[in-house]
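Exercise: predict the fold of this chain.
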Amino acid sequence: MPMGKGFAITSDLDLGSTLLQGYARHTRRPSPAASSPRSKRRKLGPLPRLKIAAITNDTIATLASLAYSVKSLPNSRVAAGIIVGTGCNATIPMKMSSLGAAKVEAIRRRKPEATETVVNTEITIAGACAPLQAVTTEWDRQLDAACARPGFQPLEYMTGGRYIGELVRIIFFDYMTRAHKPPIPPANLPATIVHSYSFTTTFVSAVVARARSNSELAGEMKRRMPPPESSNWAWSPHSAGALRKIAHLVQVRSAGLIAASTVGLLATVGEISLSEPGSTVVPLPDVLGQDEDKAASPPRFKGHTSILAHRDARDGLSPAPGTTAWQSGPEELVVAYTGGIIQHYPNFKEQCQRFIDRLVMRAGPQDGGKSVFLREARDGGIIGAGVLAGMESLHVAG
């Protein structure tokens, strides 16, 4: 919410009070001396007065929303929440005993008996991203070096909607000017391919990723991104096919990184177990059918299909009020998700789920046959914030 002039944010911050000060500027009725047609209109419908009961970020609100608002079944519960949109983040409940003293000091002061808290992980921050070094490419380093905060959020630079289009552009530009036979001079390429951040993730999602063939995409690119009039180069099925493949591989890697991060968080808090390097694991099954690259697909294992079919037919989350014993059957760990990339980029959510299934099953049989299931939290940032505000109000009233 915009604060308006005169409301500076200081280091001694009471965010709720600051929000209300900014909001109050728009709820005051104008004085009679300032009467005008506009002020008369404002008198008729001032904004309602607010009480700030709880403040949360979008990721925690997503988890709270889905845990509360979706029809529940006894074997499912929300275990984490993720955002994959312009940026990326994740939240997960953690035991207080797993966190440092400085992290839990404020909670202990207000609620000494607390044993668990929901953690906003900021999972893309540099300090948490050391494993990415093994998969970082020269194109990633080029994007990182040219962004506003180099080295700050390595995982987000590989997965976030703010950067995916730029990464596709960097790779395609490199291919056309260096690897293409013959190489194409930059002056002959469309300006959108040459200039930074002019090739958006929205365009990649809406046009490139949805094209049904190289020829169809070539026609679209001729209309939408023609080369300069002085150029002797033109879009062809070959160049359009290269762009499609680059976009697909960037998207698949992004989904894989999100899946690995999600599984890693669940393992960190003990929700699932992962095999140590060198230990025996079960064969990697193709749990969701054949990949686009069928030659690379592992064999199917009938033993897993019934569990997955049961899981995909479920509609539940945490147990409904009044539900007591955990029912027989495998437990579902639900990961609430929202964000433009995972919700709208073609096949992103399905690809991410495929990677999660493979990682969990490759780790070996989970306790109780646990599986991990992504589920969309629509309007999670709004509903979740309302849920938390209501809980805080009840707590104060009680």
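Check your answer against the key: Residues 237-268 form the longest helix (32 residues).
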